[in-house]
Design brief:
Distance between the termini: 5 Å
Structural class: alpha/beta
Radius of gyration: 23 Å
Helix content: 25-40%
Number of helices: 18
Largest sheet: 8 strands, parallel
Length: 515
């Protein structure tokens, strides 16, 4: 399985411009699709678009199925008659270039609550049939998710393991009582999900009509504080109180000398296998209803994953445990057919991980920023060593921007020494035959020139931003996931320059699967 030659941009929808403090699925998203169309790039890659919990990370979400209500376009609710223009007036001064979640979340929540009340009171009844059908079609995840959110709010946002024991254990009588008690809020959560998916599907249709495909992201692990774990405790390694006994992470790496302790509960793969991986099948089926291509985050975890005792404070004392391997993907293909999947195979990659990736023909990843380190692995990231069936990035959401990497702003948030940084910088300039003045365009040009079938560029690199434009700093709890670009950033000059590179290096085609 391979994709035809194509290129695209990595940009999370929260990073779009707009007047309400956070990017959304409305007009700014369609304008970004227009920008991609003008540059002749056919791929838009996003991070997970599920509802975020503590820390606002799209990789620690409240549900693997639900959508993030923050992405609902409030302007489109005005068009439906659910809100008025006066409803959206505010004294809050939202920054253009950062998301202040402490202001944005309550602002959006109040507007969504008002739109639901207006719907209950008879507004926008043209949405009624669609809402009822959505609830029926998605009941298998929607009912548990809506109840989970209502209960969480009713318990001051505490972890579900701190709820009353009968709710932790999901005793039927307790669930029935609270469903009735919280019926209005539960219905509001359902309605918000309906609005999200209505807008998402409209955006997908708009993009597809312009020959642009959406690449979405499925993290291998889910958050402990999620509807998924609460409603499926038998699928995870938990104790009687619902607490994880072992958690996910990675050993010491490029980003951290003590490894990364993610804290996600680990799957009971034996139980999932007995059930033909039914929960995962539903997850993929739901994802492919909203996306064209899926990136699997931490693909190597399906071959072996790093298991850390839940009580540990770092990931150092973990151990590798065998994952479900090819049996899992054979089962998925048997039930869903061939899957357009990109396998994020970064980190400590063994021959067994490569074999699993190649058995199913999933494209792996090549990161240009890793190409100039002084180690044997770096050679595989150099463009002249890329295979056809891979995805080349200048960097990902976890990397610094290319300009920030080159300048080593703020120490680069990596384990590299100053000498290693200087040497990598020299190697990059020599390889690119560059003085480094436009290092971001050097990276973009060589990514596009690669023989890799797919090339994806973070928008921050197109805009030539330094470390202030970085999306995430692994291991750092603060100031992540906040970056936004300003409405006037995508100039004609930038658009034309990117378009010319797309044409020169034949990235102007449509990404299609070759079987």
């Amino acid at each position: 399985m391979e994709f035809t030659r194509a290129g695209g941009i990595l940009l999370h929808p929260t990073s779009l411009p707009g007047p309400y403090g956070c990017g959304d699925l409305g007009s700014s998203a369609r304008k970004f699709v227009d920008f991609l169309h003008q540059t002749k790039l056919g791929l838009w890659q996003v991070l997970p678009v599920n509802p975020t919990g503590y820390g606002n990370s799209p990789y620690q979400t409240l549900s693997a199925f639900a959508g993030n209500p923050l992405l609902i376009s409030l302007d489109e609710l005005v068009q439906h008659g659910l809100l008025t223009h006066d409803d959206l007036k505010t004294n809050i001064k939202f920054p253009e270039d950062r998301i202040q979640f402490q202001d944005v979340i309550p602002f959006h929540a109040e507007k969504l609550r008002r739109s639901y009340q207006n719907f209950r009171n008879g507004c926008a009844q043209h949405l009624r049939d669609g809402f009822e059908k959505f609830c029926r079609d998605n009941a298998f995840w929607l009912e548990d998710y809506a109840l989970f959110i209502a209960l969480k709010e009713g318990h001051d946002l505490q972890l579900w393991t701190y709820w009353k024991p009968e709710l932790v254990k999901r005793e039927p009588e307790a669930l029935s009582f609270w469903r009735e008690k919280l019926a209005e809020r539960i219905d509001e959560v359902r309605f918000n999900q309906f609005l999200f998916f209505e807008q998402w599907h409209a955006l997908k249709i708009y993009a597809n009509e312009k020959n642009i495909k959406l690449i979405g992201d499925i993290p291998i692990f889910v958050a402990h504080d999620s509807a998924d774990v609460w409603s499926n405790p038998d699928l995870f390694h938990l104790d009687e109180g619902g607490w994880p006994t072992v958690v996910a992470g990675v050993p010491p790496d490029y980003f951290s000398e003590t490894g990364q302790l993610w804290g996600n509960p680990l799957y009971r793969w034996d139980v999932l296998a007995e059930r033909n991986y039914d929960w995962w099948v539903k997850r993929f089926r739901t994802a492919f209803d909203t996306l064209d291509i899926i990136r699997i985050d931490h693909f190597r975890g399906f071959e072996s994953y790093w298991e850390v005792p839940a009580a540990d404070e770092t990931a150092i004392n973990g151990k590798w445990i065998k994952g479900p391997g090819s049996h899992f993907f054979h089962s998925l293909e048997h039930q869903l057919g061939k899957l357009p999947i990109l396998a994020e195979d970064l980190g400590l990659i063994t021959e067994e991980v490569k074999a699993l990736r190649d058995e199913f023909g999933f494209p792996g990843f090549r990161i240009l920023q890793f190409a100039f380190d002084d180690n044997d692995d770096a050679r595989s990231f150099l463009p002249h060593n890329h295979p056809h069936n891979c995805v080349v990035y200048t960097g990902t959401h976890d990397n610094d921007t290319s300009v920030g990497w080159f300048r080593n702003d703020n120490g680069g948030y990596s384990t590299r020494s100053e000498e290693e940084v200087n040497q990598a910088r020299k190697r990059a300039c020599a390889y690119f035959n560059s003085d480094g003045k436009e290092i971001n365009w050097d990276f973009i040009r060589h990514a596009f020139a690669s023989v890799a079938n797919t090339a994806i560029i973070p928008l921050q690199d197109v805009l030539g931003l330094g470390s202030d434009g970085r999306m995430n700093r692994p291991g750092s709890p603060d100031e992540n996931w906040e970056w936004r670009y300003c409405a006037d950033a995508l100039s004609h000059k930038t658009t034309e320059r990117l378009r010319q590179l797309s044409i020169i290096y034949e990235r102007d085609g449509i990404a299609e699967l070759k079987m």
